[in-house]
Every structure is written in structure tokens, then in C-alpha cells.
Amino acid sequence: MGQMTSDQIAKFLIKQKVPAELAGYYAACFLEYQECNENIQRNGLVVTHPRTAAIVNNPYVSVREKCEKRLFTLRRQIGKDAAEALWSEWSKA
To answer: For residue range 10-21, what is the model confidence (pLDDT) as tens digits?
Structure first.
């Protein structure tokens, strides 16, 4: 998957004519979402608690869901085309 930094993502979005403050916020949410996805892919939806060894839901799932909601809201503000261009660029990187 992609290896873009928050600054690179924000600059990419600014080139798509997204206001700088929205670009920075979208970049942070986007990277948090990607981090959650990577953790879920690596560890699964259900994990072992590190101290108790109990089986628990992966906490990254709920964080990812919150990120999805924020990204969806921000997508309406930055525009569908800019968001889709970023997702496409991320999959190439």
C-alpha cells in the first residue's frame, strides 16, 4: 500500500484545489484510517488482550469506523473528485 506522509497527502490535496486547512485534516484522518486497516489486516478482527489473554474485539475496528465517518463528512467538503484522486494515488504508492 501507499507510503505517503501527512504532508505529502496534504500537498496532493492542495493541488486538487482543496483548502489547506481541510487538506491537513483530511490527511490526518486518512492516515489514521490506513493505520487501522493495516492493524486489522495484520491482527484480525478478534485479538488476544496483551495482559489478560482474553479474546477481545480488535480496538482498531471501532477507531476505523470513527475515521470512516469523519472521512465521509470531509469528502463532502473537499469534493468527491479530490478524495477519489487521493485514494487512487495511495493505491499506486
So the answer is: 999 999 999 999
